[in-house]
Amino acid sequence: MKYLFLISVVFLSACSSKPMSHQIAEVILGEVFEEVTNTEISYVGASCPEIRRKCQSGNYQEWYQSNGKKACACNK
Cα(29)–Cα(41) distance, rounded to whole angstroms? Predict the structure, then answer.
C-alpha cells in the first residue's frame, strides 16, 4: 500500500513543469524501484567500488549516464 502511495506521488510530481519536481520524482521512483526489486543503485561513481564489494552474491553492473557520470547497481 505504501508503494502505491509513493508511485502516485511520483506521477503527480512528474506532471509538474518545474525541473526540481522532476528530480524529486526521479529520486522517489528510484527508491521505490530499489525496494521492490531488491536492488542497490548508485548514481555517484565514487560509491561504485563499495557497492561492487558488497555485491558478491548478486549481479553487479556499471554504466555511464547521459551526463557522462558513472553509475552502478547490484541486483541481489
Answer: 12
Give pTM, 2 decimals.
0.59
From edge to edge, which strands make up the β-sheet containing 70-75? 39-42, 70-75, 59-64
The partner residues of 75 in beta bridges, in order of sequence, read: 39, 59
CB atoms closer than 10 angstroms to residue 37? 12
Q: Say how far apart CA 55 and CA 65 lie, in whole Å.
A: 21
What gap in Å lies between CA 25 and CA 4, rounded to an integer? 14
Q: Mean pLDDT score of the chain, rounded to an integer?
A: 78
